[in-house]
Amino acid sequence: MAYYRPYHPPADPELVRQLTATQNEMRQRVRLEPLAHPPKLIAGLDSSFPTPETILSVIVVLKFPELELVEKVYHYGTVNMPYVPGFLSFREAPNLLLAFEKLTQKPDVLMVDGHGIAHPRRMGIAAHIGVLLDKPSFGVAKQVLTGQHPEPSTEAGTTAPLTDKKTGELLGEVLRTKDRVKPVFVSPGHRIDQDTATALAWHCTRGYKLPEPTRLADHWAEEFKKEVR
């Protein structure tokens, strides 16, 4: 996920209060539970900001477990909300919803380039979009946003817990997807549990650092940028 983060003035305190209240309300709707059935279609979601005022959201849909690409869509639009640390999902989610509407084949599970509950208020973009769509969702992120963790072993497929520094709450798992390459951070978003999220992320790995759904979403984002420039 490419973040465009130039200097921004401090956020309006009232806006922060409103966004915090919204996240707290959405957090109450999050359900972490095993999938009722194995997925047949899994999607990768990625958003990037080509300029401070614009956003490009890409969704790819793959057959599962074959990981054959069956559909790809994007939506390019303007961003009206300023960048506020910890509330990036409010900038991304509206455009992702517009991209989702373009899909002709609706996925069973959403793999989002970003965090699920591994967020200071447990509402990263994977949890946010999962709640809005009421779809099973989880995040695969490249960097830690909150929490602490030991390093997993250097071999691909190994994991380590990502936990809250104060409470010890499990926020996600650190997954080594490739030998001796920096790991990714997998966290459930909505209607999925940690074990399933980690298992799906690992199953979707094909020799790259990123699992195929988000890797392909990122790839097609670069291609689609050529169309909107």
Could you explain the architecture of this structure?
There is one protein chain. The chain has 229 residues and is α+β, with helices and mostly antiparallel strands. Helix 2 (89-101) crosses helix 3 (125-133). 28% of the residues lie in helices and 26% in strands. The chain is globular and about 45 Å long. The mean pLDDT is 94.
What is this entry, summarized?
The protein is an alpha+beta fold and 229 residues long. It is built from five helices and eight strands; from the N terminus they run H-E-E-E-H-E-H-E-E-E-E-H-H.
Strand order in space, largest sheet = 3-2-1-4-5-8-7-6
User: Gap between N and C termini, in Å?
Assistant: 18 Å
Number of strands: 8
Mean pLDDT over the full residue set = 94
Order of helices and strands: HEEEHEHEEEEHH
Q: Return the structural class.
A: alpha+beta
Fraction in beta strands: 25-35%
Name the shape in a single word: globular
Q: Residue share in helices?
A: 25-40%
How would a textbook summarize the main sheet? 8 strands, mixed
Q: How would you classify the quaternary structure?
A: single chain
Runs with pLDDT <50, length 5+? none
How many helices? The count is 5
